DNA sequence: CTGAAAGCGCTTACAG
DNA sequence: CTGAAAGCGCTTACAG
């Protein structure tokens, strides 16, 4: 149990020169003679010297670490997003600390507190559905720790944002259902306060309107982002006197719940009820019948959010303006929404 | 953009006392007068002082951070495991850095390098299936950074280990299939070098033997831990002249692949082929028919590994001996292995 | 080209 | 009870 990391002091002692010189030689400073440099670098290598990042952090007030907060890492969408974050972070020499909010404002705030304490250089976050309040993020910004929002974005915070064109995704999915002959299209939406919920709902609504179809209050239900939520809402929908012939699900888990409930209830997809949802493709394809999916470029989303964040961190002065990037979703039609005739 | 964290120096200046006194007052040292203490603590609170953990790390050579390496965080088993790690770590005042090896020895080594550099206090790891070599972990230990293995454990490293009773899980699952009348039971196993692969294979084999059934080489195939792997091996199995009437899958994804392939090929589960697999219950239940599953206490596994690690970190002297904890798996029978007669 | 000194934020023996 | 000093590992103006 020898915790003997080599230090600059040690190298200096061995070579009988000053710490300053060693430090400069290691950083390849032009003011050190080639000869000294070589001596120092050779010794450092043979001793496996690596600079103590903690000392550096203390000095530079920079940790080369960024934080990510997502609602839940077990969710494929977010784990893929984290992949994108790590990809960029890693390639630009940063490390990543991952936090889960579990959709709780409380946990989100404790994460931001930890981030502030740890002097993390910046944060990318998909806010918890509970969070209407952005104060904890504003505080971070005021401490000089930039924050970039992705997926779930809110107006309350002035910063870069990366999101998916939810409106268009829902619009196109709804149009697809209409084109397949569905006339009573329901939507199980996500939790109320989240912006993506609103956008998707609007896309759904506008598509109906465009095609002269009625918008029925009773066909729109809000649900937490869980399978149980989707299942329960589906029961509710199918119990209606005027039951839907298609359902649009707002998330992976909700859509799984819809699929599950319909099977339980004995409905055939797509003949009795067509199903489409915002869903990871590998999950959607696992189902029987495979579910038509609006897929999101999650990895890319993580990448873009992170590169915006690192730019913010590395630039001296705040940017002229903050940008909001809108990525496109993808419609993948599978059996669950193909009417028998086709 | 004011990066003005309050420091001890600042408090000392405002109160016109020395840094030493402030430091001691904050740590509630008995050698400081109640009066001074109160003054200091009150001011610190009103200024939202929080000690700089980086300075503390430099001083104490401790970061209060542990590392976790898993093959893939998108895998439910591991994300749940990480939940367990964070649960314990958090409650004992540690933070967690998460690394993914993507099953590559290379990535695993770069993670351990980073961990050593960052002076992380300890590491829990489920080794990559590629890793037969444990040198990078041994090195960590030699630097005084304890390592605890979970899930995938190997003999090459002397330390605490936490694993599931794979042997028994596979044994019981196989017995279950036999009791259901299956007579030609195949096994799609995981990658060769991993210990759990061997254990599960043995459990399968011994169960067959116990019931006087033949062990057929051609009914055992190794697969990477992917859905595609499971699918392809299933094609291979079902193409045999003497095809199996049951398949035991060695992991979530492999089992998904089996299910998928059987459906593609037009076999009914469980009538034509019974299926059971090591699998997360929420995934297994999503399928149609729902898959019988050997479930593992993943969250608990993360908890136990972490508490063993923290004990190691916090004890001065190395433990008298290293222990290996073996957790029990659970057999959850669902439709995929219930023969029609039942 | 090289070194002594100060300092990042903190703690803790050592004096008094 | 309180303070000055040294030190964790490093960098960098300031001298020379």
Brief characterization of the structure:
By secondary structure, chain A is of the alpha/beta class. Helices cover 45% and strands 15% of the residues of chain A.
Number of strands of chain A: 12
Strand content of chain A: 15-25%
Largest sheet descriptor of chain A: 6 strands, parallel
* Gyration radius of chain A, rounded: 26 Å
Query: Which homologous superfamily in CATH is the superfamily of the largest domain in chain A?
Result: Response regulator
Helix content of chain A: 40-55%
Written overview of the protein:
By secondary structure, chain A is of the alpha/beta class. Chain A has three domains: 44 residues, Orthogonal Bundle (434 Repressor (Amino-terminal Domain)); 131 residues, Rossmann fold; 138 residues, Response regulator (Rossmann fold, 3-Layer(aba) Sandwich). Helices cover 45% and strands 15% of the residues of chain A. The longest helix of chain A has 17 residues. The termini of chain A are far apart. At the A-B interface, helix 4, helix 5, strand 2, helix 6 and helix 11 of A face helix 4, helix 5, strand 2 and helix 11 of B. Chain A binds a DNA duplex (16 and 16 nucleotides) through helix 2 and helix 4.
């Amino acid at each position: 149990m020898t915790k003997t990391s080599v230090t600059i002091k040690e190298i200096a002692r061995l070579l009988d020169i000053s710490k300053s010189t060693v430090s400069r030689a290691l950083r390849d400073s032009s003011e050190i003679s080639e000869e000294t440099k070589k001596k120092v670098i050779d010794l450092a290598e043979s001793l496996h010297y690596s600079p103590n990042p903690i000392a550096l952090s203390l000095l530079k007030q920079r940790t080369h670490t960024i934080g990510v907060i997502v609602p839940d890492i077990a969710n494929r969408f977010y784990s893929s997003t984290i992949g994108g974050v790590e990809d960029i972070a890693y390639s630009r020499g940063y490390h990543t600390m991952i936090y889960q909010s579990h959709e709780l404002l409380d946990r989100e705030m404790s994460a931001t507190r930890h981030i502030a304490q740890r002097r993390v250089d910046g944060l990318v976050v998909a806010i918890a559905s509970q969070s209407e309040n952005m104060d904890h993020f504003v505080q971070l910004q005021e401490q000089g720790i930039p924050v970039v929002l992705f997926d779930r974005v809110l107006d309350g915070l002035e910063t870069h944002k990366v999101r998916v064109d939810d409106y268009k995704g829902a619009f196109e999915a709804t149009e697809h259902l209409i084109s397949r002959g569905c006339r009573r299209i329901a939507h199980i939406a996500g939790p109320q306060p989240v912006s993506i919920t609103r956008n998707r709902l609007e896309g759904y609504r506008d598509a109906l309107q465009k095609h002269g179809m009625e918008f029925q209050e009773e066909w729109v239900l809000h649900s937490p982002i869980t399978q149980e939520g989707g299942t329960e809402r589906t029961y509710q929908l199918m119990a209606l006197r005027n039951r839907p012939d298609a359902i649009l699900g707002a998330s992976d888990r909700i859509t799984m719940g819809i699929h599950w409930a319909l099977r339980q209830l004995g409905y055939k997809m797509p003949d009795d009820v067509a199903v489409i949802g915002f869903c990871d493709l590998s999950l959607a394809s696992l189902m029987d019948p495979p579910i038509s999916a609006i897929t999101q470029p999650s990895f890319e989303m993580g990448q873009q959010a992170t590169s915006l964040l690192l730019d913010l961190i590395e630039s001296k002065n705040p940017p002229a303006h903050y940008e909001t990037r809108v990525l496109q979703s993808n419609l993948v039609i599978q059996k669950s929404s193909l009417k028998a005739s086709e």
